């Protein structure tokens, strides 16, 4: 492994240790009862190191995968297989992500409850999700050859992400996902071709929209 690789691996491990320590403390005692110095002590790093990895402060420790999730959303649009529509690509990504969280993290339900019952975390989550929505809408617009502020692209990004919340408490989450994204797919295919024709008339990539 190169020296750069070792540094990146160590950086990722420290970030993970901080996030794990923070979540464990927050779940045990509540978000407002835990300070950053205590989190740093449990992770065996300095407060300065904590803020180096999480410059946005305590809220960001709960959402340590924020950047990775946004990247995954954009990549799902840009690198989807030929013939796969944007709603189909997003359905696959979001369903797999949800299933992985529920299946592999026994703290997931407690994690969601922590966010829902903590005003600071709810607000941070709202801003984070809006940023994801805007990035996703921009990626969809670029892929479809439409203006970045196209309302159809914004609507698809919004409702695709909102689907995660809609199915959260349902026993039939997978079939509910199927229905939601089937609806989005029909609407996307039915309206985007006309919108794109109005702007350029062509799909420069020659792919399914």
What does this structure look like?
The protein has 209 residues and is an all-alpha fold. It has helices spanning 3-29, 36-43, 47-53, 58-62, 66-78, 86-104, 108-117, 119-144, 151-166, 173-199. α7 (108-117) crosses α8, α8 (119-144) crosses α9 (151-166) and α9 (151-166) runs antiparallel to α10 (173-199). It folds into two domains: 3-57, Arc Repressor Mutant, subunit A; 66-199, Tetracycline Repressor, domain 2 (Orthogonal Bundle), CATH 1.10.357.10.
**Given the C-alpha coordinates, what overall shape results?**
globular
The biggest beta sheet, please?
none
Radius of gyration: 20 Å
User: CA-to-CA gap between the ends?
Assistant: 41 Å
- Structural class estimated from helices and strands: mainly alpha
Query: What is the averaged pLDDT score?
Result: 88
CATH top level class name of the largest domain:
Mainly Alpha
CATH topology of the largest domain: Tetracycline Repressor, domain 2
Report the portion of residues in β strands: under 5%
Low-confidence stretches: 201-206
CATH architecture of the largest domain: Orthogonal Bundle
| CATH level 4 superfamily of the largest domain | Tetracycline Repressor, domain 2
**Amount of helix:** over 70%
Order of helices and strands: HHHHHHHHHH
Number of strands: 0
**Domain module count:** 2
Number of helices: 10
